[in-house]
Design goal:
Number of helices: 15
Number of strands: 12
Strand order of the largest sheet: 2-8-7-6-5-3-4
Strand content: 5-15%
Order of helices and strands: HHEHHEHEHEHEHEHEEHHHEEHEHEH
CATH class of the largest domain: Alpha Beta
Shape: globular
CATH superfamily of the largest domain: Type I PLP-dependent aspartate aminotransferase-like (Major domain)
CATH topology of the largest domain: Aspartate Aminotransferase, domain 2
Distance between the termini: 38 Å
CATH architecture of the largest domain: 3-Layer(aba) Sandwich
């Protein structure tokens, strides 16, 4: 009932790019921006924003925008505004936290990472582990299903484990690991749990406490926001950490100038997610939970149709078959490179992602590199059954 009542036509009307003749199935790799996000960014630029901290009206206005952005991210992940650290990307934020959390690591300490981790979340921890001689333990992926088995963490996590990284939603296989079970094992040994939201938005509500995460990383661009990122911490964690700067929390963890031109766009993107289901009421947090649950139900029905269509095509191989997964997929076409696939589909009005995916460990483990790479697609709340049929028909022509 909830799937049928999700008003995809209304949602599509919120995106200026939808309806221009192309089925946008790039997913989180190239998410479309809704009109409200575009307007918010333009309005900010027209006001000539200045960095916060001064007494000028422009600086004061930006300080308000920063506060609104922290509140928006806090509502999105179930955190508090004073636990939200903002930045231009996870490529700058994650190394910052890796450096601070590793200051007291010693020879023989351990971290647990996984082949399912994205490069942007994985590489900073591998770098800081080298200097003190920290042992890196790897959680492996089931190569057939793409799942991340929970049982292996019982052997991987020990009393010497300092950090456990867990990807919430992989953008290639769609795998959603049992984050809470892994987090409980880590906390039993006193380790911190770093969760990368990945492609989870806008397909499911996020709740930092329910996940058992100590830190959760979110990239706004993955769900139609601007190129802004945030890391939210569990209550009290930032106060336990020592930053070099004599600034209040959370500012002491933010390096360099903030991307102030884009912060109102971040808030607008969160508000857009909260309004996906027009029946949702209450606080923004309540509307986010209801809207993302409704969007997820709608996309789940779409993905079942997509998955059945892809797996029926000769020459098309879909990577992974996880039971608990997001509506995203990576696939290969026999005797065709990703560029050839992308060009063919584009000529038939379908856009998928064929560029860098930032998942080196996973693609290497699956042997995708030996096949010339993969193409990636992801459904969004504005996707329709007709667009899926358009993709499957085009791939059938290509495979033939």
């Amino acid at each position: 009932m909830q799937v049928m009542s999700f008003d995809v036509a209304r949602v599509r009307g919120l995106y200026p790019t939808v309806g221009a003749g192309t089925a946008h199935l790039d997913g989180c790799f190239s998410a479309l921006q809704p009109e409200s996000v575009i307007r918010a960014i333009i309005a900010t630029l027209r006001s000539s924003p200045a960095q916060p901290g001064s007494r000028s009206p422009r600086s004061n206005r930006t300080a308000t925008s920063v506060l609104h952005a922290r509140r928006a991210v806090a509502d999105l992940v179930g955190a508090t505004p004073d636990s939200v650290v903002l930045g231009d990307s996870l490529a700058t934020l994650m190394p910052r936290f890796a450096e601070l959390l590793s200051v007291d690591w010693q020879l023989g300490d351990e971290i647990v990472v996984s082949r399912l981790d994205a490069d942007v979340n994985l590489q900073p921890w591998l770098r800081v582990a080298r200097a003190p001689g920290v042992i890196v333990r790897w959680a492996e992926v089931d190569l057939e299903t793409g799942e991340l088995p929970t049982w292996q963490y019982e052997q991987l996590i020990t009393a010497r484990t300092r950090i456990v990284t867990v990807p919430l939603g992989n953008p290639a296989t769609g795998t959603v690991p049992n984050v809470r079970a892994i987090a409980d094992l880590a906390h039993r040994h006193g380790a911190l749990v770093i969760v990368d939201a990945g492609a989870a938005l806008p397909h499911m509500p996020l709740d930092l406490a329910a996940l058992g995460a100590d830190l959760i990383a979110v990239s706004a661009a993955s769900f139609g926001g601007p190129t802004v990122a945030a890391i939210a911490a569990r209550p009290g964690l930032l106060l336990e950490m020592e930053g070099e700067l004599a600034l209040p929390v959370p500012q002491r963890f933010e390096l360099g100038p903030l991307p102030i031109e884009l912060l109102d766009g971040l808030t607008a993107a969160v508000d857009h997610l909260a309004g996906l289901d027009e029946r949702a009421t209450g606080t923004r947090r309540s509307r986010l939970v209801a809207s993302l649950a409704a969007a997820g139900d709608y996309e789940r029905a779409l993905f079942e149709h997509l998955d059945a269509g892809l797996r029926s095509l000769p020459g098309v191989t879909v990577l992974g078959s996880a039971t608990d997964r997001l509506p995203v997929a990576a696939f290969t076409v026999a005797r065709r490179s990703p560029d050839q696939v992308g060009d063919f589909l584009q000529r038939r009005g379908v856009s998928v992602w064929t560029g860098p995916a930032g998942m080196t460990q996973l693609m290497r483990a699956l042997g995708v590199d030996e096949m010339g790479g993969a193409s990636y697609l992801g459904l969004m709340p504005h996707t329709t059954f007709g667009e899926i049929d358009q993709l499957v028909t085009a791939l059938e022509q290509l495979a033939a």
